[in-house]
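Help needed: design a sequence for this.
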């Protein structure tokens, strides 16, 4: 039985995997975290595109029927270039988040936060404008959020003060909706919400991404009809122990048996 392939630069994509598993419990999943080359957020477009193609080729060898690019940076830089070049559907995390945000915003002011790469690519902005040219977009890179989350710093004075500084332009722009455009940011939701206020809707695209995966598989008649729970395999390019130890936080459960692959 074919699997759903998911890749991310590391452990963050487990926030998306978790939601796909919740919505599609009978599907087999193959997850690849490129832990040898993380972070993608500070790398060039060219490099992220190359890594993404290599990750896709690895997943295709695992007999996948659809690939989800769970990484926002890879989705921003690589998806527009690669999405129609492979024999399976490839979906990213940008479009589902954009759709939800444009739908949610009443005052047509949307904030986007992400890695340096994601913000530099302007992919979110381009897609928002394509859907509704009247929307005003304010974007901000929050590069320290990823290491904070990986170190388990999701509250406290240091995080709060850095977040206040990053989010200042977003707060000043009077947005009513903010896209959490990075795999790690849902874990900082309480901090971000606290700074921006309850009136701002935070969009975490994982649910919409999983829904999109389901929709595509259904429309192509590729859903697994078996009633048995799917099997989940986890591969990384380095440091499986590190991945396992962080997985609990991102996935909400332990991930044992993480395999290291040498040549992606
Ligand atoms: N997964 C990345 C993203 O969503 C964050 C971590 C990284 O920079 O590789 O953009």
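Sure. Designed sequence:
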């Amino acid at each position: 039985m074919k699997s759903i392939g998911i890749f991310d630069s590391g452990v963050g994509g487990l926030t998306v995997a978790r939601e796909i598993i919740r919505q599609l419990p009978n599907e087999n999943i193959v997850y690849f975290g490129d832990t040898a080359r993380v972070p993608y957020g500070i790398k060039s477009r060219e490099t992220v595109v190359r890594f993404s193609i290599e990750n896709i080729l690895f997943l295709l060898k695992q007999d996948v029927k659809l690939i989800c690019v769970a990484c926002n940076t890879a989705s921003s830089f690589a998806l527009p270039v690669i999405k129609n070049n492979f024999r399976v559907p490839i979906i990213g995390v940008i479009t589902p988040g954009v759709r939800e945000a444009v739908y949610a915003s009443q005052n047509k002011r949307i904030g986007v936060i992400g890695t340096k790469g994601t913000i530099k690519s302007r992919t979110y902005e381009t897609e928002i404008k394509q859907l509704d040219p009247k929307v005003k977009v304010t974007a901000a890179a929050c590069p320290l959020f990823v290491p904070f989350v990986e170190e388990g710093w999701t509250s406290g004075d240091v995080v709060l003060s850095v977040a206040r500084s990053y989010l200042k332009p977003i707060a000043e722009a009077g947005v009513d909706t903010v896209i959490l455009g990075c795999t790690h940011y849902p874990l900082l939701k309480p901090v971000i919400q606290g700074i921006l206020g309850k009136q701002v809707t935070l969009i975490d695209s994982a649910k919409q991404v999983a829904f999109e995966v389901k929709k595509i598989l259904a429309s192509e008649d590729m859903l697994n009809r078996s009633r048995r729970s799917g099997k989940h395999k986890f591969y990384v390019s380095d440091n499986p122990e590190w991945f396992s130890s962080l997985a609990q936080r991102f996935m909400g459960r332990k991930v044992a048996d993480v395999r290291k692959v040498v040549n992606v």
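The first strand starts at residue 3 and ends at 8.
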